[in-house]
Amino acid sequence: MYTVGVRDHIMVAHSLKGEQFGPAQRLHGATYTVTVEVDREELSPLGQVIETSVLRDSLRGVLAEIDYRNLDEHPAFEGKRSTPELIARHIHRELGRKLPVTAGTTLTITLHESPLVWVRYRAPIRGASMLPAEPA
Amino acid sequence: MYTVGVRDHIMVAHSLKGEQFGPAQRLHGATYTVTVEVDREELSPLGQVIETSVLRDSLRGVLAEIDYRNLDEHPAFEGKRSTPELIARHIHRELGRKLPVTAGTTLTITLHESPLVWVRYRAPIRGASMLPAEPA
Amino acid sequence: MYTVGVRDHIMVAHSLKGEQFGPAQRLHGATYTVTVEVDREELSPLGQVIETSVLRDSLRGVLAEIDYRNLDEHPAFEGKRSTPELIARHIHRELGRKLPVTAGTTLTITLHESPLVWVRYRAPIRGASMLPAEPA
Amino acid sequence: MYTVGVRDHIMVAHSLKGEQFGPAQRLHGATYTVTVEVDREELSPLGQVIETSVLRDSLRGVLAEIDYRNLDEHPAFEGKRSTPELIARHIHRELGRKLPVTAGTTLTITLHESPLVWVRYRAPIRGASMLPAEPA
Amino acid sequence: MYTVGVRDHIMVAHSLKGEQFGPAQRLHGATYTVTVEVDREELSPLGQVIETSVLRDSLRGVLAEIDYRNLDEHPAFEGKRSTPELIARHIHRELGRKLPVTAGTTLTITLHESPLVWVRYRAPIRGASMLPAEPA
Amino acid sequence: MYTVGVRDHIMVAHSLKGEQFGPAQRLHGATYTVTVEVDREELSPLGQVIETSVLRDSLRGVLAEIDYRNLDEHPAFEGKRSTPELIARHIHRELGRKLPVTAGTTLTITLHESPLVWVRYRAPIRGASMLPAEPA
Fold first, then answer.
1. Between chains, do E121 and F5 touch, taking CB under 8 Å as contact?
2. What does the DSSP assignment read for C44-76?
3. What residues in B contact F31, CB-CB < 8 Å?
4. Does B131 score more than 60 pLDDT?
5. Alpha carbon separation from F84 to B9, B132, C2, F11, F129 (Å, rounded)
6. Mean pLDDT of chain D
7. A24 interaction partners in chain C (CB closer than 8 Å)
8. pLDDT digits (tens, 9 = 90+) for C8-32
9. Tens digits of per-residue pLDDT, C61-70?
10. Which pLDDT tens digit goes with each residue over A122-131?
11. A-B interface: how many C-beta pairs under 8 angstroms?
12. Angstrom distance (rounded) from CA E58 to CA E62
C-alpha cells in the first residue's frame, strides 16, 4: 500500500466545558500541526498516490475555515466540544468531500497540539462523487 | 478509528549480553523517548479517546519504576536482556494493568533510542478490570 | 561559555489589534513551545551551569501564570499587544526575578508558535537578589 | 506485533516529466530521509526483531546505489518517473532481496522529501531465500 | 535583543567540482531547509521585530529564483561552486536587498541539507534603502 | 561569519554523586545527541568552512572513546562528575586537538540529553598545530 502525507497547521482559540478538563475549561488556544495521509493500493499512471499540490491546496481550503478563529463560536462545533479528536473528525469529513479520490480511500488526520500530545482519526472516506445532494 | 498519543522519556543504564551486540555488550545507557498510543473506535461522551492527563500520569507511574536505573539489576529484566523491544513489551504490560480502558483496546508503545533507531510493540491489552487477582 | 537549556510549552488565546496583523486580529490561539537558555562563564562546583530541576520548576512557575489563558484579559498584557516578542519579554522579566543566578547572567527565551515561525529575546537579567523591594 | 525502525538519507537529482508536475519538471533535487520499519510477530531468541546493525548496513547498501546520483540517468528508473512513491517501491524491492528475514515479513519504507511532504510504501516482502535464481 | 525566525525550503540539483567533494562531484540534489533570523534591539510600535508575513513573502521571493533548479546552470553561481555556504551567502545578499529593515540589521541564514549537516551565514545587511541604484 | 554544523550521538552510562542530583545519583544512562559547530570568518578556496567529512570523522573519532561506556569508570572523568556540561567540555578539548583548523577558531558543542534538556560549551580552540608536545 502506498501513502502520501502532507503537513499544515492552524492556530485556534477554544475552551472545553466539563470539570474533567481542568484548566482547559478556560478560554485558551493551540497551534495544531495537522497532517493528512492518503492511502492507495495502486499508483496513478503518473506514479503518484495523488498530486501533492492538490492535496495541500484541498487541506488548506478546509483549514482556512477554522484557522485563526475561536472555535467556541464556530458553527462546525455548535453544540459540541472542540476536542482535538473532534477537530480531526471535522477535517476528515470536510476533506473527504473535497478530495478527488475514489470512495473508500482511507484518510488519516493527525493533530499535534504540543510536542507531548497528539490525536488521530483514521477512516475510509465516502468520496466527493457520492455526495452531490449534501450541503457543504 | 481514533487514537491519542502522549510522549515521555526515561534515562537508563544496561548492557546486552551476546557477542552479536558488539559494543552494546558493555555497560552503557540510553535516553528512550517513550510514546504511547491508545486506539478506540468510538469517543467518550466528552469527545475524547481517553483523558490525556490520566494517560500521561499512568505512563509516568509505569516509567518511574525503571527511570534513572540500571536495568541489569532491575527485577523486571531478571534472566532476560533489556533490549528496547523487551522494554517496550514491559511498558505495554504494566500500562495495560493500570489504564482504565476496556479489555481489547489496542495499545502501541514506541521507544526511540536515538534519532536513527526505534522499536515498537503494538497489541490489544487485556484491561485493568480483568486482572483483579494478579499482583501488580 | 557554558549554556543549559530547557523546554516547556503553553497554550494560550489572544488577538492582535491592528490591521497589519490580518487574520490574527481575530481571537485565536497558539501553542508556544518555550525554551530558556542560561549562559555562564564558569561551572558551579558540582560541574553545572544551574541545577536543571530548579530551572525547569522556575520556568513552570512563570508559565503557570499565563498557561491556558486568554491573554487579552491578562493583567500582564493590559494596554499592550501580546505579540510573541512581548510574551518572550514577559517570561524573561519574570524568570529573571525568580532564578537564583548572579545579576548579569544572560537569559535567552525562544518561543516557537509553529514549525515555521519563532521569536527570541536575549538579554542579561538583573538577578533576583537585586530586587528585594519590587513586587513580584 | 514488534517493529524496528532505522533512518538514513540520500541526496539525488531528478526531474518529473508531465505538465502536472509544474516546476518539478525541471531538473532539481531532494534530500530524501529514508526510514525502514520491519514488523515481526515474535522476537528472536536474543529479544530482537532483527539486529539493528544488519538492518542499517543492508539499507545503506541499497541506498548507496542511488545516493549522490541523477535518477534521470539511473538504470533503475529507466522508462519511468522517479517519483518518491516509486523510489520507495524500489528501495522496498531491493532491501527485500537483501534482508535475512522470512518471506512474508512486512517492510515499510517512508521517504520525507521536506518537512511538509512524505510518501510511504508498505507491503510484505518475498524474502531473500525465495529468490535464488534472480540476479541481485 | 529580539529575533524573529521563519522557515522555508528549496529543492535543487547541483554538483561540486573538486576531488575533495568525493561522491558530491556527481550531479545530485538536496532539499535545503532554509531558516532566516532577523535581529533587532528594539521592537516596532506594534510590538514586533518585523511583520512575519513580510519576512516570509520576501524569503519566498528570493528562494523562488533558485527553487526547483539545477544550480550548475544558474547565473547566480556562474564560475563558482554552489556549496551550501555560498547558497546561504547568496540568500543573505538577495534578502538583504528586499527586506524593509534598517542598514546594519543582522540577518542569519541557516541551511539544513540533512538531519546531520547544516551551514549558516550571519552578518549585518546593508539595507534596502541604501541600494536605490542597484537592480533587484 | 560562516558556520558548519554536524550531528552524531553517544549512548553512555553514568551516575552523578551529590544529593542535589536526586535520582540521577543512581547509575543510569543517556543518549546524548552531540552537535558540533565550527565558525570561520572566511571560506576556504573551495567555498567551505571545513570539509564536512573531515569534521564528521574527527567527531566520530573523539566520540568513539566514550561511546557505549560507563563514564564512572572512564579515565577522562576520573575524579570528576560526568555532567553533560563536562562531557561537552571534554569533547571540545579532544576535538580541538584533532581538527585541522587555525588556533582561535570557535567551536560549539551542544549535547541534548532528552527532548527537554540540553547543554552547550562554546569557546575558541587552541588548534592542533599548537599542541605538538602534548599527548593525545
1. no
2. -TTS-SS-HHHHHHHHHHHHHTTTTSBGGG-GG
3. 29-32, 113-114
4. no
5. 17, 44, 11, 12, 28
6. 93
7. 11, 68
8. 999 999 999 999 999 999 999 999 9
9. 999 999 999 9
10. 999 975 544 4
11. 51
12. 6
CB C16 within 8 A of CB C80: no
CB contact under 8 A, C13 and A29: yes
What is the value of ipTM here, to two decimals? 0.91
Q: How far does A136 lie from chain D, in Å, by closest CA?
A: 27
| Per-chain mean pLDDT for chain F | 93
Contact residues on chain B for F69, CB-CB shorter than 8 A: 26-28
In this prediction, residues D61-75 reach a mean pLDDT of 98
Is residue B75 a contact partner of residue B104, using CB atoms and an 8 Å limit? no
- Give chain E positions within 8 Å (CB) of D9: 114-116
Question: Smallest Cα–Cα separation from F90: which of F23, F36, F133?
Answer: F36
How does A22-61 read in b/e, with b if 16+ C-beta sit within 10 Å? eebeebbbbbbbbbbbbbbeebeeebbbbbbeebbebbee
- Cβ distance E81 to E119 under 8 Å? no
Numbered residues of chain E with Cβ closer than 8 Å to any chain C Cβ: 1-8, 37, 43, 46-49, 51-53, 56
**How confident is the model over A5-37, as pLDDT tens digits?**
999 999 999 999 999 999 999 999 999 999 999
Whether E120 sits inside 8 A of F43 (CB atoms) is no
Cβ distance of F46 and E115 shorter than 8 Å: no
Question: What residue has cell string 539493528?
Answer: D52
